[in-house]
Amino acid sequence: MYSLSETTNPPKRFTSSDLFAIPAMDAKELALDLEDLRLLLTSSKRPAVQQWIKSKIEEIEKKIASQKEKQPAPVPHSNDSSPAPDANKSATPSSLPTVKVTNYGWDESDKFVKVYITLQGVHNANPSTIQHTFSNFGYDILISDFSGKNYVMTMKGLRDEIVPESSQIKQKQDMLLVMMKKKTEGKKWEQLTKLEYDEKQKRKPKFDDKAMGDDPQASLMNMMKQMYEEGDDELKRTIRKAWHEGQNKRNTADMPLPSLDDM
């Protein structure tokens, strides 16, 4: 038979503090407990019970405050809704270098004058970045932020007048096509700008009909002399060659050709 002293230790006695000890829990659970305790406080009548509930309320409030102190401070937000600058974002068009494109080709039909501007990859450019305006005698084109640059194409002083509202530009493979509607259909421009046209007209040999009638030989000589003086090296070589061949063929003629020294 076992004596009483050999039995297990007497059971531990629990106090009210042990019964209502607040285990570790998150802030949400603590808030719910706090709400219930406050309800109990309003319904309790005995002072001792009220005092005990108040102590538990204070305990929970301290736990909640302690958890809030351990939480990281929120990052303040500016009232400015604009996003923070992105270091990888491309620069604004106004800060990019500007390239003026002056090389082009052109041709004409009865209704249109067409200018071909070669620009590698321009067919991939966003159409919204290509701005253009036409006037009666020219155009202005701006391509913004294309391959890290801005491109400007300007044409002034066209040979003849165009119809701005009927003119347009088109994106082609590595090329920008400018189509300008002629105001006078069927008229040949011969040159793209008025300056080029006037210069060409000045270089044309001048014919004097009266002189041709009085002395055709002298008039022809004057025309050849003008062509020789105003022509390039290739033209001068051609004239010299033709002149020598003409002299050789006319050695027996009654009126020999003047020598090249007179040219």
UniProtKB/TrEMBL annotation:
Biased composition (Polar residues): 89-100
One Gene Ontology cellular component annotation held by this UniProt entry: nucleus
Gene3D superfamilies, sorted: 2.60.40.790
Organism expressing this protein natively: Ancylostoma ceylanicum
Statement: the UniProt record of this protein carries the keyword Cytoplasm: yes
Name recorded for this polypeptide: Calcyclin-binding protein
Transmembrane segments annotated in the record for this chain: none
Chain intervals with Basic and acidic residues compositional bias: 242-252
